[in-house]
Task: structure prediction
Amino acid sequence: MSHERTQMGRRFIRERIIAGAVPSVTHHGWEKRFPWLVQGTTLTNDPDLPVDDFDLRLFGPAPSREVLARWGALRDYTGLCRTVHARQTHGTRIVFHEPGPAGLELHPDADGHVTRHRGVLLTVALADCVPVFLVDPVRRALGLLHCGWRGVAAGMVEHAISTLYDRLAAESSALHVHLGPAICGRCYEVGPEVHQALVGNTPPGPESLDLRSVLRDRILRGGVLEERLTVSSHCTRCGEAPFFSHRGGSEGRQVAFVGMRC
Result:
């Protein structure tokens, strides 16, 4: 069965589900194309097993031993000894990561991460927002973004593309970009102010909005080639794969992750 379909020029990817100690989904096409890459988004649990929710939320209430143990399991699963994460504020700040000590490194107030170094696992936490994975296979540059509507409206993806170019000489035309599991347009109803901020129109009341479609248009305008841009077919609220969904009443968080193997 094909994991990819095209609709109105958009390449939709149904990521491969991986069961086990770190339940997750991964971009099957990137697995084959970039064997040096570790990439995925965690699930709430293994769909085949009655296990506890795989909540990875670090900020808010003090994380439990179980949450910290899950972060350790993610480190072991990826084989990358250094994990970076940040308190997310729906802004546009991006942190550039050099090599550093092993362990979990937390940063204040950032919604994006970039690196060119092996062994650094970039992570963002999600529960409906869009994880944006950026890979330049020529310069071995990586980026990972947390994109809610406020960050998108503030120009997060444009800032990330320019940061990758300014810091790592990664041309937008060389980037491969994937918009990971997130809430779909049918499930995401927002007010007129959000439509105005993102698409420039003002409906009379709340209406549905496809945030990944908005992101896709901005990414293409930023110079990424259409054939190198894919969109997950998973919805965090109505899809069959188990994800945390803020709109669905979840308090937990899944984590998107990407890094280069050592």
Notes: The helical segments are 28-33, 65-78, 149-153, 156-168, 192-199, 211-221. Residues 176 and 228 are 5 Å apart (CA to CA). The first helix runs from residue 28 to 33.
